[in-house]
Amino acid sequence: MSSPLSPRKAALQALLRVLRDGASLSDALPPLLARVSPRDRGLAQALCYGTLRWHRRLEAILACWLERPLKRRDRDVACALAMGLFELLYLDTPDYAAVQETAGLGRGLGKRWAVGLINGVLRRAQREGAACATAVDRDPALRHALPDWLYRRLAAAYGDGTEAVCQALNAHPPMTLRVNTARIPRGDYQERLAGAGLAAAPHPQVETALVLERPVEVSALPGFAEGLCSVQDAAAQLAAPLLDCPPGARVLDACAAPGGKTLHLLDRAGGRLALTAVDSSGKRLERVAENLQRGGHRAALVAADAAHPDTWHQSPPFDRILLDAPCSATGVIRRHPDIKHLRREGDIPALARTQADLLRALWPLLAPGGILLYATCSLLPDENDMTVLRFLEDEPSASEDPIQAPWGVPRQVGRQVPAGSDGMDGFYYARLIKR
Ligand SMILES: C[S@@+](CC[C@H](N)C(=O)[O-])C[C@H]1O[C@@H](n2cnc3c(N)ncnc32)[C@H](O)[C@@H]1O
């Protein structure tokens, strides 16, 4: 068994894995969290998510008191400082405890000099923090702790709505459930939740969605193991009704893992679909298999590159295709604040090329009269309407089947859910029909 860790030590190690080594938080955090006592895990998690969420702003504020930037080899000390400042500014830990505990991390790093530095800087932050934060916050990218390139692109796409989108990207995400309404009406499931002491409210726009007042372990959700509900943001729950698969339809779910939308497609049709779920990651396909088992459904699972269907598809064409394309995931930054650090501006053209390749490669697999739903959890037009517009220009058999809906905003083609609108993650959908 690995040795136990204090919550701050665990959080610091996870932060270093993300900020120094480029690991994702979902890979870095769980093994460290397992070494923290259960009652302290919430603090470790809050420190990790919060420090990553606000890191750019925290570093800018800290620069007020550091004579010069810390050296690369002292990244650990810089992370501890950012984490300590986050705790001072955003959590309700008593200030003296936040300062003392964070400074103590310096000893654990084998850098005794860092104890004095962290102590001194965090004490100045207690005294002068507000003035320095006011100066930093004049720059909107720093105020929202976003990389300049991302802020610039969001401002170009959302104009007057930019402030609201940026605020939503830094908000705490709700835990939203999708009720399997083929098996239980949403209101009845809400009552089952209330009976288990869990308060939830119906989502105003998405008829399968219940928003929990507080997040809980899935094991506390009545009937979760039997597929009565799933954890899925309301924006992701829009996909299956938009694709609207008739019973018995041949359906391709390209880029299917971990299978949230696969399960919804099958739940909605009472399992009566001939569904093929493709994902390039065999490991992630295991999650699709688990979801199918929980829902009591069957599907053909294929580990392959969806952009090369010649390697996995021979049979007749599909009536419906869901292309939930790999993307920048900028619409879900509130759930994965590590994206702020891991994504680079140069990734966007490469992602747009992959998305265009997938669209082009999958289109021939669609039967005449069939529908393809293109989806991303990106906020950036280059990955969304621009990709689809270019495809429509090149492909004479494709036209838009416009989405009329009370949610989101229409784009040149398709509809965008800006992050935070109706409390949802940022998502994009375009529905295409084949002549
Ligand atoms: C946005 S996620 C899909 C989420 C999923 N549809 C759901 O609702 O749970 C994108 C998925 O695409 C997969 N992927 C990326 N490139 C791919 C490719 N060329 N072919 C097939 N799958 C790919 C990734 O492994 C990832 O699981």
From TrEMBL:
Pfam family membership, one: NusB
Q: Which residues form the active site?
A: 377
Q: Provide the protein's localization.
A: Cytoplasm
Q: Which GO terms describe its biological process?
A: regulation of DNA-templated transcription; rRNA base methylation
EC number(s) per entry: 2.1.1.176
- Organism domain of life: Bacteria
EC primary class: transferase
**Annotated positions binding S-adenosyl-L-methionine:** 255-261, 279, 305, 324
Q: Which GO terms describe its molecular function?
A: RNA binding; rRNA (cytosine-C5-)-methyltransferase activity
Q: Which family does it belong to?
A: Belongs to the class I-like SAM-binding methyltransferase superfamily. RsmB/NOP family.
Function, as annotated: Specifically methylates the cytosine at position 967 (m5C967) of 16S rRNA.
Its name, as the record gives it, is 16S rRNA (cytosine(967)-C(5))-methyltransferase
The species is Ectothiorhodospira mobilis
